[in-house]
Amino acid sequence: MSNGKLEELRGQLDSVNQQLLELLSERGRIAQQIGQEKEKQGVPKYDPVREKEMLDELVAQNKGPFDNETIRHLFKQMFQASLKLQQSDHVKHLLV
Amino acid sequence: MSNGKLEELRGQLDSVNQQLLELLSERGRIAQQIGQEKEKQGVPKYDPVREKEMLDELVAQNKGPFDNETIRHLFKQMFQASLKLQQSDHVKHLLV
């Protein structure tokens, strides 16, 4: 009975994990397009002002249960991964 | 003209950020319920076997653009944050 409840919650978690993966991947694809656009315009990829704005906006929208510090930490990791993606695209572009 | 393109992509990114925040928060709420259920059952919160299964499943579903190592890293951060949430709920519970 109790194990049924745990199984149900785990099923929900798996579904959310999958949706998170899809959204993260979509975020990665948009970041790649932004990287290409910045490349064309000769603008630096890393924009700390824009990053701060995004983090402030996310914290303003945060209703929990994660505290603001955790939200900042998790999104900073995603931003770093996106930047790495843009930079590796740049290297690939140079190698072509 | 080009700035319009960048603005459009940034708008898309903001929208995805917001959806990610909502999903992350939903994940946090489910993790809290799992923590309460485990508490009742006297089962440990941290389950490395289940965590490995979730990571393997995510990597199997990953179609890019992030590489598998990055997906593992990002999700591990989310898992750790969820575990911290369960543990702080436990402390609150003890203090009541």
From TrEMBL, chains A, B:
The residue ranges of the Chorismate mutase domain are 1-90
Q: Where are the transmembrane segments?
A: none
The lineage's top-level taxon is Bacteria
The identity of this protein, by name, is 3-deoxy-D-arabinoheptulosonate-7-phosphate synthase /chorismate mutase
Give the lineage: Bacteria, Bacillati, Bacillota, Bacilli, Bacillales
